[in-house]
Amino acid sequence: MDNIRIIEIKESVFANNDAEADRIRQELKEDKTFLLNLMSSPGSGKTTTLVKTVNNLKDKLKIGIMEADIDSDVDARTMANTGVEAIQLHTGGMCHLDAGMTEQGLKALNAQSFDLAILENVGNLVCPAEFDTGASKNVMILSVPEGHDKPLKYPLIFTVCDALIINKIDVLPYFDFDMDKVIEYAHQRNPKLKIFPISAKTGEGIDDWCNWLLENVNEWNK
Amino acid sequence: MHEIGVLEEAVKTVERIAKENQVDKIRFITLEIGELTGYMPVFFEKYFPIVVEKRPVLKDAELRMKIVKGQAICEECQSLYNVMKNEGCCPNCKSRSKKILGGQEFLIKDIGY
């Protein structure tokens, strides 16, 4: 049997995806389009939060939405009711979007015509955190019923996000959710993380979150 | 189950490297997997044949894995400890403040052909 030759590589598994994501980010910057990658567990209120966000910002920004799900188009139809452009991406069973799939979505949406493109990633706290989509900013939603211990259990997503929305604060009295603890744990993972406690249902806290987003979009697109 | 997604990513990178080096048949790939990534090696083993079956360069390749221990140094008392065994807490002073020294890597270490 002939000899086996070995190539030493020592390259991150995500090197390809990271390079693609950097290229997408560069193109978005040139097109003056801000891409927000929104991540969370299923049922945390991503779509409801987005509806409130879009209604708050649609007079100030031209917004386009990409809804990523394993199947169905219920989210895209909900978003389309707000009057902004919304498309549905199907991941074909995959539990996250990578840079390549995001780029296809941006093309389908014709994202360069928007100030703000929002990617609602697949509901999952693990895989989406591993794949850079090329977004300008990453934001996650954690909802009160999920518990304040999530930064300990899913550290990576808290590390890669720029902002954390804590949703469903209207139900705080009914859960053993410790707001001080979640902030402490989240900042242990990522001291720079901006935190916005909100209730997408009542509208509490939405203004602060939307102001932060608007500032970041304007900064990116100037 | 998220092992399958990252494994797809690893395999795509290996295909690119094989092409760059004009390798048409890979015999093995070695992944270096840090304990703190949360990946379960058993699932990599399980999914590997499925992920490579339609990729001619890798179809008959063997998957090798090198596990890297999750080591940290305590920022309070400077003790060196294993993060997994001690559940993220310094066994000496119980502090959670630490600098991770290893165990977060997820690399393609090498390929054999």
Automatic annotation (TrEMBL), chain A:
Keywords: GTP-binding, Hydrolase, Metal-binding, Nickel, Nucleotide-binding, Zinc
Domain of life, source organism: Bacteria
GO annotation terms (biological process): protein maturation
Protein family per UniProt: Belongs to the SIMIBI class G3E GTPase family. HypB/HupM subfamily.
A Pfam family: cobW
Protein name: Hydrogenase accessory protein HypB
PANTHER family found in the cross-reference section: HYDROGENASE MATURATION FACTOR HYPB, HYDROGENASE PROTEIN ASSEMBLY PROTEIN, NICKEL CHAPERONE
SUPFAM superfamilies (UniProt xref): P-loop containing nucleoside triphosphate hydrolases
Single GO MF annotation: GTPase activity
Listed NCBIfam families: hypB
Limits of the CobW/HypB/UreG nucleotide-binding domain: 38-196
UniProtKB/TrEMBL annotation, chain B:
Name used for this protein in its record: Hydrogenase maturation factor HypA
Coiled-coil intervals, chain numbering: none
Gene3D superfamilies attached to this UniProt entry: 3.30.2320.80
GO molecular function: nickel cation binding; zinc ion binding
GO biological process: protein maturation
PANTHER family registered for this protein in UniProt: HYDROGENASE MATURATION FACTOR HYPA (PTHR34535:SF3)
Keywords on record: Metal-binding, Nickel, Zinc
